[in-house]
Amino acid sequence: MIQRLFSTTKKFPITVTNNAWNKMSEIINKKKSIGFLFSVTSGGCNGFNYDFQLMDQYKYDELILNKKINPTTIEKNNIKLFIDPIAEMYLIGTTIDHISEDFDKGLFENKFIFLPDKNLASSCGCGISFTPKI
Questions:
Q1: Tens of pLDDT along 24-82?
Q2: How many C-alpha atoms does 5 have within 13 Å on its Cβ side?
Q3: Which top CATH class is 15-132?
Q4: What are the domain boundaries of the chain?
């Protein structure tokens, strides 16, 4: 006999820190956008680059309505993060964070950083490119 367990908890393929949500909220409110698109492009020293783009209504309509793509959407406090369905399998386990400059800690810029799950991908020192582990 096989027993199946069902869960009402939905686990998202990526994790977004509170720092990243706060920065995304700030940007979306200033730019009057609807969210961000998280994807990948080919290139970089490890094969793939993380791609993080602001989505306005036109880009959203082009992606969702015209191409009929239904991305995974993560939402917090009305801030939406769309995950490109074609790239989602490469992004599983990634954490999006935002770091702010802190001269005492040697941080001289504000930026989003992408941290892959070390069991699923490896990245180079720049933190922008990665290689999925197959």
A1: 999 999 998 999 999 999 887 778 899 999 999 888 888 877 777 788 899 999 999 99
A2: 2
A3: mainly beta
A4: 15-132
